[in-house]
Amino acid sequence: MATKKTNTFSTSPKNRASLAPWLGIAAIVILLDQLSKIAITKLFVLGEEKLVTSFFNLVLAYNRGAAFSFLSNQGGWQRHFFTAIAIVAVVFILFQLRRNPGQRMFCWSMALIMGGAIGNAIDRLLYGHVIDFLDFHFAAVGHFPAFNLADSAITLGAILFIYDELRRVNKN
Fold first, then answer.
1. pTM for the whole structure
2. Who contacts 77 (Cβ-Cβ below 8 Å, separation ≥6)?
3. Looking at the 3D structure of the chain, how many domains does it have?
């Protein structure tokens, strides 16, 4: 008996519909990230801090590198390098979302990571750096590097991805 092979990359309404919620989640992440960065740059000057709680400040910081300011003191090439990595990641995530539309937690994780990657790539393309403003600090540890909503979405997406993979492996 012959079976009908489906094309993963077809543009049928069914395929687009299964991708739509995940693109919507990524769009919400991008929107909230960019709006928060616009607000912080309008209200603060570079380096300005506002104490919110005993362990949290708002601060305007620019990061020319990656996580924890990795490669931030280089000559500028890192801007293009990290933007290219974000673009490759987004293309890969779109492929994975189309390939696995029924795996909800996996798709949530990919949508959050994609939204965060695009949010930070927008900063790199427009400003040459990523705008960070969330500053947590603890007496025993000191200051955690400042970050933003895009970074938070990427982190949450990575946690969901790891949890989903562990859950899937334990089922088998």
1. 0.83
2. none
3. 1
pLDDT score, position 75? 60
Instruction: Dump the DSSP string for 153-169.
Output: HHHHHHHHHHHHHHHHH
List, in sequence order, the alpha helices (H) in the chain. 13-43, 77-99, 104-127, 149-171
Does the active-site annotation cover 151?
Answer: yes
Query: Which of the residues 123, 132, 135, 164 is marked catalytic?
Result: 132
Is 3 a member of any domain? no
Q: What is the mean pLDDT of the chain?
A: 85
Write down the catalytic residue from 33, 123, 135, 151: 151
Residue 87 in any domain: the answer is yes
52-93 pLDDT, tens digit each: 988 999 999 998 766 555 555 556 566 778 788 999 999 999
